[in-house]
Amino acid sequence: MQKLLALEKQPIFHHVVVRCFCTLLDAVPHFNFRESLLVAVVRNLGSSDDVVRRLCCSTMKSLVTNEGKHGGEATVEAVRLIADHVKAHDCQLHPDSVEVLDSTFHAALHL
């Protein structure tokens, strides 16, 4: 996990590493390093790279929609991290990120 986090900072590997984070989080949200994966994915929700941002947004939506895989624990962690992300960016979010919040609220209403 540490090697992936280090490789994420290198532009040549950024797309591949983010795809690994997203795929792993989506496939096995109960993974030991889930919080590290969530932090990395949430950090990239506002990426200026369209591919990275859309991949991360899609992963977060999937995580919320399929919360039966993890009993909702990952969703709670994700919402906390997204709230911190919103605060850190002074509520200046890309519309794709706003869609993630919207899907989170819709999923919560259907519980």
TrEMBL record:
Recorded GO MF terms = chromatin binding
Q: Which GO terms describe its cellular component?
A: nucleolus
Q: By its UniProt entry, which InterPro entries does this protein fall under?
A: Nucleolar_cplx-assoc_3 (IPR016903)
One GO term of the biological process aspect: DNA replication initiation
Q: Which domain of life is it from?
A: Eukaryota
| Entry protein name | Uncharacterized protein
